[in-house]
Amino acid sequence: MLTLQRQAHLRAGPPSIAVRRNRIDRLLAMVLDNLDEYVDALAQDFGTRSRTGILFAEIMGMLTTIEHTRSHVGAWMRPRNPKPSARLYGIRTQVRPTPVGVVGIIGPWNFPLQLVVVPAAAAFAAGNRVMIKMSEITARTAELTRSLAPAYFDPSELAVVTGGPEVAAAFAGLPFDHLFFTGSTRVGRLVQRAAAANLVPVTLELGGKNPVVVAPDADIAKAATRIARARMVNGGQVCVSPDYVFVPQGRLDAFADGVGAAFREMFPAIATNDDYTACVDPANYDRVLALVDDARARGARVDQIAPPGEPPSDPGSRKIAPTIVRDVTDDMPIATEEIFGPVLVLRPYASLADVIDHLNGIPSPLVAYWYGPGGRDFRFFVRNTRSGGVSRNDFALNMFPENAPFGGVGDSGMGAYRGKAGFDTFTHYRTIGGTDLPFVITASAAPPFTRLLRRLIDIALRYAHRRTRRRVRGRLGPGGSVR
Fold it and tell me: What are the distances in angstroms from CA 312 to CA 283, 307, 315?
């Protein structure tokens, strides 16, 4: 498949804007023409996942981003002249956006359709061919996409691959021109290692324990309700889910009561509630419960908000009731591992500085949340922490603008996509220079070096040194710090 796509790409050259838009349109048509089939496949893969939840989070979430990409691709693909004034001296330069070639995309299971379609649309906009490896955990969705793709694309344009971990490992080891992966940090390291053997550049969209800070002057009841609702999007199985919450000391119990009340209002029933998303498979169900059970055994306080008459967890349906965990210590796995389920950890804090010190001592998250006013404390928090993005008073608000880049930093990923960032990710900016002058400008770079050239170099360096010293004189403090 890779050879087929690369040869087709080299034969055809960079595609026109019409071809790029047509590929994006066919990609979107593949999804929209088969909505009912995708809803059924996704619901079966999860066991319980409502039609409305699928359509809102999985399908609607991709439309604005793809439409923005489609409408702007013409402007993004135009060459630019980085030094127009050079034309006066007979020199012409141009930076031309060119496709990298064949892009490999490895998708996750939590949003198995959206998180391959959106990067594929960006890769098409940049003029590339695409190969997709679907997650084997959501096998029905994967098989549906594989079976539908040939009706909309020639395999030299788009190919969809299914299979287990062995197939994924082989896929990651192919000599793509770019490899895009969404998934866990642990698997991301394996993907990067496999790609490195062929010097393939990678974009890693990973997870992380996303912290939430409830501001000292926040409305506790409002923050509790909003954070509870945010945690339950897709049953907590979202890479940007709030994972644990820092609450001002003395207000922790009131906050916990507010979260519990919100959970009860949201879910008067769970067992018969089709809107309550189940854990995707037995392995993830068992993993989430193991984190909770371990925390309880080590002394944490666990409140499982199950409706009256219902069990807190059910292996048959793979549903776990919303759970609040307090009194967590750093030696508990739940304090360091991404939960990826309907469990919210609450931690008290005495000062904002303590929270910042904690966050700066652990891997950087994909999103950092702040609930409260956007005043001095919020600005201090943003300035002194590191994360892929920041969202205040709402869930994943940093992803709301379709033209804003989305990506992690450190353990939460590298690179970005969405909007022009996606186009740039899958584009090589090729600089082309030329001259029709009757002499060679760079002839002086080759020996023999004349006395005049040496003299001119000495003069230029002395001038640069004096200029630099004037800029820094009187402005440097001890240790070279700026006054």
Answer: 18, 8, 10
